[in-house]
Amino acid sequence: MVDAVVRARGLTKTYSDEVQKLEVLKGIDLEIRKGETVALMGPSGAGKSTLLHILGLMDSGTSGELEVLGRDARRLEEAEKDAVRNREVGFLFQFHYLLPGLSLLENTALPLRIMGMSASDASKEAAGILESVGLGSRLRHLPSRVSGGEQQRAALARAMTAHPRLLICDEPTGNLDLERGEEVRALIWKMARQEGTAVIVATHNPDLARSADRTLRILDGRIAEK
User: How far is the C-alpha of 134 from the C-alpha of 212, rounded, in Å?
Assistant: First the structure.
């Protein structure tokens, strides 16, 4: 049996108000397996971010089936979704979202502290993962005191510090130059493969997409495999 981390069948998302109804996702069928890297491409406004938010349990679909990490998303209470996101899903966005008043070490340790780990153990774990992304000499630096590429590497370290089973990335190299973007891309794949983490990355970068195990394209609210 396929070890699916994410499985969607007929997943839809519709936004509506008194004036209009907008169908963003029109029947998504998708399966992502353990340790697999998947690139998601498509024009701006095609629904890539909407789909990622639903797969990451930050939003809900309108209809269809969705199983995330062995759980039926339709049956999860909000507290249960929070617990899954905190412990088993990592997120990496175009902007790093590091807390400006905390050091890189404190930012990276924060998910572990939220999970209940002691300050000393969380710091030790965070220091190790920052070292693995080349930031061992920047532990005490504030985000404003490091480069954009280093900020994004710290954000990746924070996303991976709890050893998630699923990593969701939304344009993770979009704010970086070509060289820094390639560094971050290589680190995402390296860390995910070391951990056996499934990854889905929304991107406009064809080089990043080509380096993934599979590339999916979203058009008109539906997905096709390239």
Answer: 23
Confidence grade of residue 20 (pLDDT, cut at 50, 70, 90): confident
Q: How many structural domains does the chain have?
A: 1
Instruction: Tell me the pLDDT of the chain averaged across its residues.
Output: 92
Is the Cβ–Cβ distance between 175 and 154 less than 8 Å? no
In tens, the pLDDT along 61-110 reads 999 999 999 999 999 999 999 999 989 999 999 889 999 999 999 999 99
CA pair distance 62, 181, nearest whole angstrom: 34
The pLDDT value given to residue 226: 57
CA distance 48 to 44: 8
126 part of a folded domain: yes
- Domain housing 187: 35-60+81-225
Question: Cβ-count burial of 38 within 10 angstroms (0-12 exposed, 13-18 middle, 19+ buried)?
Answer: buried
| Token pair 């920047």 in the structure block, residue | 138
Q: What is the CATH number of the domain that holds 115?
A: 3.40.50.300
